[in-house]
């Protein structure tokens, strides 16, 4: 039979080792819980909830008969006790908490008569009440395995250390068991054993899990020729299988350093304690090592030591890690003038690496308290166990201390004790924190140990988001308040300095001038407190005719209050045609105004087919601004040829239509020249010129002009007798004078032949 001195957590035997992954089919069994956790704590009195700036610790649950008043008035936590815990089981030696699930280990339990084989109890919280969900024992467990020496929970994954396990017949080589929860049932997922496991390595003396990664310490493993130097092993889950992915050892480790006595993991970082490491000639001063996972595996990133470390401090005895914050205990570190009282150090990771941020000690430290026997950390809080702390009439009853982060500092917020302390109860042997819940183990509490679940209830004046956070039951103006303070109605009361009160946590009239009713609209006005009355003045509207929305430009209209409504009338615009800076308003916008007109210089014009004519066209802008995007169109009969000579215009001709555009037309007039080659067959026709723009044109009746044109020399006249004359197509300006003469000759020949045929017919 193996024997261990559990109180000091120093195992009697040890040698070096690394772990090997055993078969996933590692035998284990889960015994479902059959009842609720024993809520048999004797509830002690709570400090008066009018106290200011004092944390409130309240029951995480009470029996169904407890009413709301009793929940506020009671300070003792619910006590979690396994359904079949027996004397000497040491329940609470190690604990772990994640959300509404609590794990409590009993490493000296004797399931099925196997002495010190160990067991683990799982509790779940619902409606504030903790009940036992399962009892877990190793199916292949043997006496002396100490299954549950350390436990760690991450979501539905639970890892349990068994440093006394004998894998492959290697005595005390140690193992770690992994369980997975599906629904409400826990199933064995793997038994983790070092790939180079050796007798007395004690793998599982420390364990930690984060998601799909587990780290397990083997504090007595040999590393090369360094006996008992210690090692830590990392295992990773791929699918449903677990594989050893790394073996970690100190870069400067020495024999008997106890590397792996404590381990922690968070994301890509692993923290390993080495409490017997020698630092600068200081024996057993201790150290902790940080490893970071990268593409090539885990690489040592830093070695952490206490700034004031001394021989026999045992720095690194326990470690905790979350994000960029690490907590490392120094079990025998000294508070000022208190030898071996214990301490804990907070380190943070920044751009320049890791640095010591704070040294934590108990406010009432006493020599040999063993403050730092276990540590836990969340994003904002640290919990430190001191199992040998004395209470009145109860020597070594134990305590746990909570610390809250404030900027870069840490402040002790509470001293936690058992609601039913006993001599040598070792309350604080195991600790865990998650959110507002704290879990503390007391393994020597009769009859076989227990764990205590606390909920942090804040004191008056402390920041809060909900009433459930406050011991008083009231969260007002962002702080826990001594009363309802107005019950949420509009008034002139406040409970925080920020909100206008004289002090945080005490409801009082708000300072004068503080807005108690905000304006509900631009035609309403805010009401302010007098500084003496708790009543907000009557609601008042702005006077009728008061401008509630000013005009922002010339085409916008200002709006005025009606004296009754808090809401400003809808935004309105000036009427269309209202004079504005550029011209006139149109649909609420000031549009440029250009008075365009167009006219032919002469109402009639005579042209000749033989010579293209130049026709003068006058374009005017008599408006207030330039016209934009101007279009000029000149329409002529079929076969006419047109061109325009004018600055700023570009033209295209399609058929007998000439389209010209200009980006703008300044105020004033512009003389245009239109060149016309008349159609060959018409003696009389018209040219129509039209001008338009995107700018506003108040009078568009003068935007079109018609020119009557006489062609004194058409190429072809209609034949007498009413027959349709022949048209000669394809004649344009490109035909030239020669082309016109040829056409004239052709037509003359045709007329001569027609006259000759007529004479022959007459004969």
How would you describe this protein?
The protein is 4% helix and 40% strand. It is mainly beta and 763 residues long. Among the domains are: 19-41 and 77-457, Integrin alpha, N-terminal (Methylamine Dehydrogenase, Chain H); 596-711, ntegrin, alpha v. Chain A, domain 3 (Immunoglobulin-like, Sandwich). A hairpin with a 2-residue loop joins strand 49 (650-654) and strand 50 (657-665). The radius of gyration is 48 Å and the shape is elongated.
Structure keywords:
763 residues, mainly beta, Immunoglobulin-like, five-stranded antiparallel sheet, 2 helices, disordered N terminus
State the end-to-end CA separation: 158 Å
Task: Assign the CATH superfamily of the domain at 19-41 and 77-457.
Answer: Integrin alpha, N-terminal
Number of helices: 2
Strand order of the largest sheet: 45-53-52-47-50-49
Q: What portion of the residues fall into strands of 2 or more residues?
A: 35-45%
The CATH class assignment of the domain at 19-41 and 77-457 is Mainly Beta
Instruction: Tell me, rounded to a whole number, the average pLDDT.
Output: 83
Report the radius of gyration as a whole number of Å: 48 Å
Poorly predicted residue ranges: 1-75, 718-763
Kindly report the CATH topology of the domain at 19-41 and 77-457. Methylamine Dehydrogenase, Chain H
CATH architecture label of the domain at 19-41 and 77-457: 7 Propeller
Shape: elongated
Sketch the major β-sheet.
6 strands, mixed
User: Helix content range of the residues, please?
Assistant: under 10%
**Number of beta strands:** 53
Main structural class? mainly beta
């Amino acid at each position: 039979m193996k024997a261990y001195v559990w109180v000091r957590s120093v195992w009697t035997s040890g040698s070096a080792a690394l772990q090997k992954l055993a078969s996933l089919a590692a035998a284990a069994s889960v015994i479902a819980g059959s009842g609720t956790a024993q809520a048999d704590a004797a509830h002690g009195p709570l400090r008066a909830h009018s106290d200011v700036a004092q944390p409130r610790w309240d029951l995480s649950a009470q029996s169904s008969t407890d009413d709301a008043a009793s929940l506020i008035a009671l300070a003792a936590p619910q006590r979690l006790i396994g359904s079949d815990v027996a004397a000497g089981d040491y329940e609470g030696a190690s604990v772990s908490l994640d959300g509404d699930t609590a794990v409590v280990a009993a490493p000296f339990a004797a399931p099925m008569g196997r002495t010190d084989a160990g067991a683990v109890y799982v509790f779940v919280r619902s409606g504030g009440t903790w009940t036992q969900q399962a009892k877990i024992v190793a199916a292949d467990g043997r006496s002396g395995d100490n299954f549950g020496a350390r436990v760690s929970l991450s979501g539905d994954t639970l890892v349990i250390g068994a440093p006394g396990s004998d894998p492959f017949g290697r005595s005390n080589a140690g193992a770690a068991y992994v369980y997975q929860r599906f629904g409400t049932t826990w199933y064995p997922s793997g038994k983790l054993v070092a790939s180079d496991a050796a007798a007395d390595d004690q793998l599982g003396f420390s364990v930690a899990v984060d998601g799909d990664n587990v780290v397990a310490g083997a504090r007595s493993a040999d590393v090369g020729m360094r006996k008992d130097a210690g090692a830590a092993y990392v295992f990773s889950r791929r699918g449903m299988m677990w594989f050893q992915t790394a073996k970690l050892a100190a870069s400067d480790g020495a024999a008997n350093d106890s590397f792996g006595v404590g381990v922690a993991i968070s994301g890509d970082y692993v923290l390993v304690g080495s409490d017997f490491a020698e630092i600068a000639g200081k024996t057993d001063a201790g150290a902790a090592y940080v490893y970071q996972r990268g593409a090539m595996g885990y690489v040592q990133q830093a070695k952490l030591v206490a700034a004031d470390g001394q021989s026999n401090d045992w720095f690194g005895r326990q470690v905790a890690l979350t994000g960029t914050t690490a907590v490392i205990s120094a079990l025998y570190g000294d508070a000022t003038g208190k030898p071996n009282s214990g301490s804990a150090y907070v380190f943070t990771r920044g751009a320049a690496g890791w640095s010591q941020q704070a040294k934590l000690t108990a406010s009432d430290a006493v020599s040999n308290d063993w403050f730092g026997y276990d540590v836990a950390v969340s994003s904002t809080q640290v919990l430190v166990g001191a199992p040998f702390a004395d209470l009145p009439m109860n020597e070594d009853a134990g305590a746990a201390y909570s610390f809250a982060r404030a900027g870069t500092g840490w402040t002790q917020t509470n001293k936690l004790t058992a609601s039913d302390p006993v001599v040598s109860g070792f309350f604080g042997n195991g600790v865990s924190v998650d959110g507002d819940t704290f879990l503390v183990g007391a393994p020597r509490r009769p009859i076989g140990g227990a764990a205590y679940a606390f909920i942090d209830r804040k004191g008056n004046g402390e920041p809060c988001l909900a009433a459930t956070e406050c011991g008083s039951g009231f969260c007002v103006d962002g702080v826990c308040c001594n009363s309802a303070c107005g019950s949420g109605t509009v008034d002139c009361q406040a409970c925080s300095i920020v909100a206008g009160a004289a002090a945080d946590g005490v409801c009082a009239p708000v300072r004068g001038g503080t807005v108690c009713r905000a304006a509900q609209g631009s035609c309403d006005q805010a009401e302010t407190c007098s500084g003496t009355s708790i009543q907000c003045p009557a609601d008042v509207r702005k006077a009728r005719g008061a401008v509630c929305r000013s005009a922002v430009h010339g085409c916008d209209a200002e709006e005025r209050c009606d004296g009754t409504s808090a809401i400003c009338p809808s935004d309105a615009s000036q009427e269309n045609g209202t004079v504005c800076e550029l011209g006139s308003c149109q649909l609420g916008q000031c549009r440029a105004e250009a008075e365009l007109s167009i006219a032919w210089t002469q109402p009639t014009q005579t042209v000749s087919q033989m010579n293209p004519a130049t026709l003068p066209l006058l374009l005017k802008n008599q408006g207030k601004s330039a016209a934009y995007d101007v279009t000029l169109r000149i329409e002529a009969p079929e076969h006419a040829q047109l061109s325009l000579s004018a600055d700023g215009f570009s033209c295209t001709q399609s058929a007998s239509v000439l389209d010209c555009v200009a980006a703008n037309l300044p105020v004033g007039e512009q003389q245009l020249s239109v060149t016309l080659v008349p159609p060959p067959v018409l003696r009389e026709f018209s040219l129509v010129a039209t001008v338009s723009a995107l700018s506003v044109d108040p009078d568009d009746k003068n935007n079109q002009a018609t020119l009557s044109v006489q062609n004194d020399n058409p190429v072809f006249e209609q034949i007498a007798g009413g027959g349709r004359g022949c048209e000669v197509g394809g004649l344009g300006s490109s035909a030239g004078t020669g082309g016109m003469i040829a056409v004239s000759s052709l037509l003359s020949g045709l007329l001569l032949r027609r006259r000759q045929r007529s004479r022959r017919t007459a004969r």
